[in-house]
């Protein structure tokens, strides 16, 4: 990299270039405009509920904050559990497909996992209600009987299996393909030379992955996880169909007392809501918006701190 | 940037091999796109086989087929199956009419009707006084709306307990179970009502609707009126207590009760399927849900006070002691304008509402949705109201 | 680092201290057999049902632990870690397959009941009880999703190009950030927004039409498209761009002819994923597209049925008898999965045709 003295050469400005970059910029701005429109809509609809008496929309809480706080907890709790389950499994699958399975097999396996993303949330809901919940019910009873002293499994166990843990498992199954397929593509793009260099130095396969593949894909992994988390936070129908919701905060994983989530609560109560009730539900939607904003800021911060490792640039 | 530049000459060398400008590929590309285009046109030009020839039954259609146009209703999801059956028969008789019914929920249905988005609404609750004071966009200004019962369904208390097929319960016991004050199946209160039953020493899992619903409102109304000491919460769309399991929709409750252990729940009688159904104490007897019992209690209940002549809102007599009544019942209403701003809509709603509440329409709903037909007396009152629609 | 044995002979560094190739497999088989025997004995003692899944699970866990211990003894710590990760990764894969298999089995087993010609040629107009089909819902889903794709892919792809190739400064940062925020829009809110937006613009409080659904779905789809294509564009090696510039290729042509083709496989995966993400959405479509039993091929007028709404309504509000409704629901779900499978295949085909043939 030698620097030359003298006048810097100026690149010719081409019309096509200007047009192309302009279009790209307009597309970006369009997204901001659309989001601003959604935000304005949410704010305008939410404002009446923020000042109204919670009794008007059927809540026992003292004010809107008291109404929304359990929902915030429930949303984050369910999504957190889902990501907790989905993240390690997704990394495992992505690595299995990119670095462990024979190449021919890997393509087919990748396709099968992508299929999981294709299953509509209604079907996940049906499966959760009719197959998973009855299947895990005895396990919950066992956990409550034997590990009930841990606050997570405090008895009594749910008699129907419709708990936050069941929801988290269904949500995890839903977001696994999202996290997996993006991470897999990233892992596959790891420069071959980096990998071969690591192997040539005597690294085992895992050491090679740890030293070459994971650092290369770090930003992509975070992005993929954020996408998955976004879906888990905003998922409506599965939570509505599978969860047995209550309006107070509960950490217990295996009982009927589970905190409702924002999106699930909207889905459950919107059809019968009228007047200020609609505003209250939209206000909770606004809160979900803010939660996502906060979580994403944190993730951005983490990625940016590690920028030195990320990407090909 | 720096390490990448040094480590990957091989990638740069591969570029010419994979040159995307390769012309051979272009032909293949167009082939694939063309195939896609052909496939999509095929799909889009497809036509539903059952919609192709409305002329088939054109000869059979009567004078009512003067009606034409697209009309929409919205509201109660409880009415959905019945509405679909009504729509099917009505459209067959009037081939030029297309009706849609959004089962969006009673609240949404009433809101849509008030805003003029739909010509009629189905609702599990009658219009509130506050809603009646407002204006209705689809109606001629300064006219009233009509509100008639069109769908009556008994609500069954369903349960799934090993070794128990028959169960007798009174209101106070039901209230205790769903409120969470009675927690075991062999509780004294239940055992006293069922001396012959072999009740297990198991925890009761009660299942209620987690979504707001007219079914919950009617269920809690019944408990609040007949057992106010135990059930101290007012009737509401939302289940009022923290006890038990929540499940979404009638189907969700049925699923939860079926797949759970030692469960009990409440749901539309028609959806109960193979589940065991509890008999409810009315007067001195235990009464199982039935269409006749439901129709009887609705017929003998008083109208809601302070309503116009065309508003047949009913305050159901939950505390009846007549054992031919089954007071745990849901009444759903058809709501429309007395006089429509759009004459075509008026003609349609009149014909459709008359069909729905006719003996023919009610028996169609009974077979397709398991509802209880309106009694003759009530149907007569409804017919008088509907005659006045313009 | 390798363990040095106390023996006098110098060990062959390349061949010694390794488990033979058959060892893991033999160990796996032995663990399974042992677990099944233990479970069978327990079953006989407790009079409960024999649990083959549990036995295999316990056997597999025992195998993982044994292999690591054995490997650590024979091969040393680094190899043991490697083996541990290998079995963890493989286990993760199998664990993920379990729900998939269970789900697919459920859908196929229950969906085949009505998987007949009538289902694909009939709508639900004037159908009560058994019979009828979902052609109207299939057409509706395809049209609405097509609409959403036509809106989101250009916008999303161009935005990611802007972010990767042009974007510097605060605008790019703002877009990146707000795209993330957009992933958190609950689907039902997107539907509410679409209803409010279009009833305001078109002045019809009861507006229900297919294109509104496309717009609502686009709101959900765009962030997925942007995020995934951004990642894919970012990992295109800079050398490719630099080589193109060095040859005098303008920037826009470089992007169009070098950057995009190189990453097209990943972008296609991302777009398919985005479509899969929205094609199964129910709540927003119920709000803006409404509910219909008749065919409608016009995106811009009247209510339009979609498969997810069809599934949901058939399950949630069945008539009597209920079975035909549930059968239709499962068959529609199966159809939806097949449609996405086909889309997936098309995406792969596109990726294969367009992407340069690299070594991988």
Keywords:
heterotrimer; B: 390 residues; alpha/beta; nine-stranded mixed beta sheet; three-stranded mixed beta sheet; 14 helices; elongated; disordered N terminus; C: 360 residues; mainly alpha; MetI-like fold; 2 domains; 0% strand
Radius of gyration of chain C over all CA atoms, rounded: 28 Å
Query: Could you state the order of secondary-structure elements of chain B as H and E?
Result: HHHEHEHEHEEHHEHEHEEEEHEEEHHH
Shape call of chain B: elongated
- How much of the sequence lies in strands of chain B comes to 15-25%
Main sheet characteristics of chain C = none
Shape of chain C: flat
Strand tally of chain B, please? 14
Tally of helical segments of chain C = 13
| Assembly state of the chains shown | heterotrimer
Unreliable residue runs of chain C: 1-8
Q: How would you classify the helix and strand content of chain C by structural class? A: mainly alpha
What proportion of the residues of chain C is helical, as a percent range?
Answer: over 70%
Task: Give the strand tally of chain C.
Answer: 0
Radius of gyration of chain B: 28 Å
Number of domains of chain C: 2
First-to-last CA distance of chain C: 34 Å
CATH superfamily of the largest domain in chain C: MetI-like
- What CATH calls the topology of the largest domain in chain C is MetI-like fold
Largest sheet of chain B: 9 strands, mixed
């Amino acid at each position: 990299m030698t620097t030359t003295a003298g006048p810097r050469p100026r690149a010719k400005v081409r019309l096509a270039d200007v047009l192309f970059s302009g279009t790209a910029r307009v597309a970006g701005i369009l997204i901001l405009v659309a989001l601003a429109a959604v935000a304005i809509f949410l704010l305008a609809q939410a404002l009446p509920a923020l000042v109204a008496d919670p009794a008007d929309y059927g809540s026992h809480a003292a004010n809107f904050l008291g109404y929304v706080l359990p929902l915030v907890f429930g949303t984050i709790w369910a999504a957190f559990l889902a990501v907790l389950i989905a993240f390690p499994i997704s990394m495992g699958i992505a690595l299995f497909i990119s670095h462990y399975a024979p190449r021919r097999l890997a393509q087919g396996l990748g396709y099968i996992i992508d299929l999981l993303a294709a299953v509509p949330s209604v079907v996940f809901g049906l499966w959760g209600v009719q197959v998973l919940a009855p299947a895990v019910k005895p396990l919950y009873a066992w956990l409550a009987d034997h590990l009930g002293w841990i606050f997570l499994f405090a008895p009594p166990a749910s008699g129907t299996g419709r708990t936050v843990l069941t929801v988290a498992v269904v949500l995890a199954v839903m977001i696994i393909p999202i996290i997996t397929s993006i991470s897999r593509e990233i892992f596959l793009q790891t420069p071959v030379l980096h990998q071969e260099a690591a192997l040539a130095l005597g690294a085992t396969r895992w050491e090679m992955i740890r030293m070459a593949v994971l650092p290369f894909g770090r930003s992509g992994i975070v992005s993929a996880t954020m996408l998955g988390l976004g879906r888990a936070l905003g998922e409506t129908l599965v939570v509505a169909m599978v969860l047995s919701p209550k309006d107070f905060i509960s950490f217990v994983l295996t009982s009927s007392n589970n905190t409702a989530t924002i999106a699930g609560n909207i889905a459950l109560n919107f059809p019968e809501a009228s007047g200020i009730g609609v505003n209250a539900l939209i206000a909770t939607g606004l809160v979900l918006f803010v939660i996502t904003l906060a979580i994403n800021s944190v993730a951005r911060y983490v990625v940016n701190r590690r920028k030195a490792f990320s990407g090909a640039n | 940037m720096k390490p990448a530049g040094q480590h990957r000459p091989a990638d740069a060398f591969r570029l010419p091999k994979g040159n995307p400008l390769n012309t051979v590929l272009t032909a293949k590309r167009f082939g694939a796109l063309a195939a896609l285009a052909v496939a999509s046109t095929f799909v889009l030009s497809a036509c539903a086989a059952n919609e192709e020839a409305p002329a088939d039954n054109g000869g059979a259609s009567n004078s009512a087929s003067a009606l034409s146009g697209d009309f929409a209703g919205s509201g109660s999801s409880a009415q959905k199956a019945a509405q679909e059956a009504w729509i099917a028969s009505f459209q067959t008789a009037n081939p030029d009419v297309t009706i849609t019914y959004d089962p969006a929920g009673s609240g949404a249905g009433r809101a849509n009707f008030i805003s003029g988005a739909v010509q009629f609404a189905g609702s599990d609750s009658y219009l509130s006084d506050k809603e009646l004071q407002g204006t209705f966009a689809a109606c001629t200004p300064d006219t009233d709306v009509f509100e008639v019962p069109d769908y009556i369904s008994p609500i069954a208390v369903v349960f799934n307990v090993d070794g128990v097929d028959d169960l007798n319960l009174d209101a106070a016991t039901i209230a205790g179970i769903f409120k969470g004050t009675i927690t075991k199946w062999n509780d004294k209160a239940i055992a006293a009502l069922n001396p012959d039953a072999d009740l297990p020493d198991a925890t009761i899992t009660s299942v209620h609707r987690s979504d707001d619903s007219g079914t919950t409102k009617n269920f809690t109304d019944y408990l609040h009126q007949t057992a106010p000491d135990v059930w101290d919460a007012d009737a509401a769309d939302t289940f009022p207590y923290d006890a038990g399991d929540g499940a979404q929709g009638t189907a969700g409750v049925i699923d939860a009760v079926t797949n759970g252990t030692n469960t009990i729940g409440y749901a539309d009688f028609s959806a109960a399927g193979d589940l065991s159904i509890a008999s409810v104490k009315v007067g001195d007897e235990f009464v199982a849900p039935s269409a006749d019992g439901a129709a009887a209690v609705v017929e003998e209940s008083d109208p809601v006070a302070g309503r116009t002549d065309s508003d047949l809102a009913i305050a159901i007599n939950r505390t009846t002691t007549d054992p031919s009544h089954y007071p745990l019942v849901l009444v759903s209403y058809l709501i429309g304008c007395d006089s429509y701003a759009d004459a075509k809509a008026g003609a349609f709603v009149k014909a459709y509402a008359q069909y729905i509440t006719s003996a023919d329409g009610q028996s169609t709903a009974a077979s397709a949705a398991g509802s209880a037909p309106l009694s003759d007396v009530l149907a007569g009152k409804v017919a008088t109201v509907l005659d006045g629609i313009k | 680092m390798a363990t040095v044995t106390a023996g006098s002979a110098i060990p062959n560094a390349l061949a010694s201290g390794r488990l033979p190739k058959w060892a893991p497999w033999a160990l796996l088989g032995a663990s399974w057999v042992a677990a099944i025997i233990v479970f069978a004995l327990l079953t006989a003692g407790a009079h409960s049902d024999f649990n083959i899944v549990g036995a295999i699970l316990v056997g597999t866990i025992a195998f993982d632990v044994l292999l690591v211990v054995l490997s650590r003894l024979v091969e040393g710590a680094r190899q043991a870690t490697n083996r541990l990760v290998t079995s963890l990764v493989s286990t993760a894969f199998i664990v993920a397959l379990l729900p998939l298999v269970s789900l697919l089995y459920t859908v196929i087993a229950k969906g085949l009941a009505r998987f007949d010609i009538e289902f694909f040629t009939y709508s639900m107009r004037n159908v009560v009880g058994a019979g009828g089909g979902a052609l109207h819902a299939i057409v509706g889903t395809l049209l609405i999703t097509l609409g959403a794709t036509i809106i989101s892919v250009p916008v999303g792809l161009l935005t990611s190009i802007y972010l990767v190739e042009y974007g510097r400064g605060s605008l790019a940062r703002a877009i990146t950030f707000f795209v993330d925020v957009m992933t958190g829009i609950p689907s039902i809110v997107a539907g509410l927004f679409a209803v409010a937006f279009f009833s305001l613009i078109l002045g019809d409080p009861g507006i229900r039409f297919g294109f509104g659904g496309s717009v609502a779905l686009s709101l959900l789809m765009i962030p997925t498209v942007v995020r995934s294509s951004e990642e894919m564009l970012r990992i295109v090696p800079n050398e490719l761009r630099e080589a193109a510039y060095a040859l005098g290729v303008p920037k826009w042509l470089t992007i169009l002819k070098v950057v995009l083709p190189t990453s097209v496989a990943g972008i296609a995966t991302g777009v398919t994923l985005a479509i899969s993400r929205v094609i199964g959405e129910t709540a927003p479509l119920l709000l803006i597209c409404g509910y219909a039993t008749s065919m409608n091929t016009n995106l811009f007028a009247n209510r339009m049925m979609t498969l997810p709404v069809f599934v949901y309504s058939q399950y949630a509000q069945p008539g009597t008898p209920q079975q035909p409704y549930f059968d239709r629901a499962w068959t529609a779900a199966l159809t939806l999965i097949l449609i996405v499978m086909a889309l997936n295949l098309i995406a792969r085909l596109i990726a294969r045709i367009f992407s340069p043939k690299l070594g991988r």
